[in-house]
């Protein structure tokens, strides 16, 4: 599943092709994704794209009347193609520009989304409960410490809660906890302020490194130009069960926390 770095890489990839371009038409071949595609997205036809933003794992394509809101789900991909490029299986939506360029949304599993946020209307419910962006000054380890007091949930599940901080998905939670030396099974309320300060820094470091390397290609993700992300080559614990720890040589352990595969070093993470 694409996580925050992959979505940010997608945003960086498509923005130069979309910015300040006029939308000529929007083609919806499959109206039933995770939620029905609203007819209101056609309000963007004839309008100029003013900005391409990211909020958590949502991409917002802004116009004067509102924003097309895209979510990649588990297998969604965005491709920049010529508008006359033959359609492939699972190519569900085209945003066609007047210059002949097309943003094409492909989603084999149809867990992605295409929504409309009207200008001046109440925010979509999927956007109203989100915590701060991890790569901004609104987020740090002190926030994690303050919100974690008396929490019995495992710290890994705690930092993956989008109400606490957005975008720390399964891969990057495991990697950040390893870098900070925190056992993912530990109750969130039992983690010290010092450890959370380190974790806040680690989350920022891991996410930025993943963005810089084009994301993590494990199965479904590829950049807008079709290239894979290379952060998978830098993973320290994720997907490395029974392999030696890069720091101490101990065998990497794996277990399930919150129904998600978790990887850690029992020696380095306490």
| CATH superfamily label of the largest domain | MutM-like, N-terminal
Structural class: alpha+beta
The oligomeric state of the chains shown is: single chain
Determine Rg (CA atoms, Å): 20 Å
Describe this structure in words.
The chain is an alpha+beta fold. The protein folds into two domains: 125 residues, N-terminal domain of MutM-like DNA repair proteins (Alpha-Beta Barrel); 124 residues, Helicase, Ruva Protein, domain 3, CATH 1.10.8.50. Helices cover 23% and strands 22% of the residues. The strands form three sheets. The chain has a four-stranded antiparallel sheet, covered by helices on one side. Strands 2-3-4-8 form a four-stranded antiparallel sheet, with helices on one face. A two-stranded antiparallel ribbon has the order 9-10. β2 and β3 form a beta hairpin. α1 crosses α6, α3 packs across α6 and α5 packs across α6. It is elongated, with a radius of gyration of 20 Å.
């Amino acid at each position: 599943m694409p996580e925050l770095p992959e979505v940010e890489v997608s945003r960086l990839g498509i923005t130069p092709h979309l910015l300040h371009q006029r939308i000529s038409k929007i083609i919806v071949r499959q109206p039933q994704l995770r939620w029905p595609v609203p007819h209101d997205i056609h309000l963007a036809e004839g309008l100029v794209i003013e900005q391409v933003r990211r909020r958590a794992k949502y991409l917002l394509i802004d116009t004067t009347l509102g924003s097309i809101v895209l979510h990649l789900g588990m297998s969604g991909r965005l491709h920049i193609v010529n508008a006359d490029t033959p359609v492939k299986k699972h190519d569900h939506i085209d945003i066609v520009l007047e210059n002949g360029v097309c943003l094409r949304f492909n989603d084999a599993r149809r867990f992605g989304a295409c929504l409309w946020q009207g200008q001046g209307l109440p925010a979509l419910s999927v956007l109203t409960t989100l915590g701060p962006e991890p790569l901004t000054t609104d987020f740090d380890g002190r926030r994690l410490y303050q919100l974690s007091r008396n929490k019995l949930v495992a710290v890994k599940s705690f930092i993956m809660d989008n109400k606490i901080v957005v975008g720390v998905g399964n891969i990057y939670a495991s990697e950040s906890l390893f870098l900070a030396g925190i056992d993912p099974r530990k109750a969130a309320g039992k983690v010290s302020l010092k450890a959370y300060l380190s974790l806040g820094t680690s989350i920022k470091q891991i996410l930025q490194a993943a963005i810089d390397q084009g994301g993590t290609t494990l199965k479904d993700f590829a950049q807008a130009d079709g290239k894979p992300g290379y952060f998978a080559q830098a993973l320290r614990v994720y997907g490395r069960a029974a392999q030696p720890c890069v720091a101490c040589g101990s065998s990497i352990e794996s277990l399930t926390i919150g129904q998600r595969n978790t990887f850690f070093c029992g020696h380095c993470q306490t």
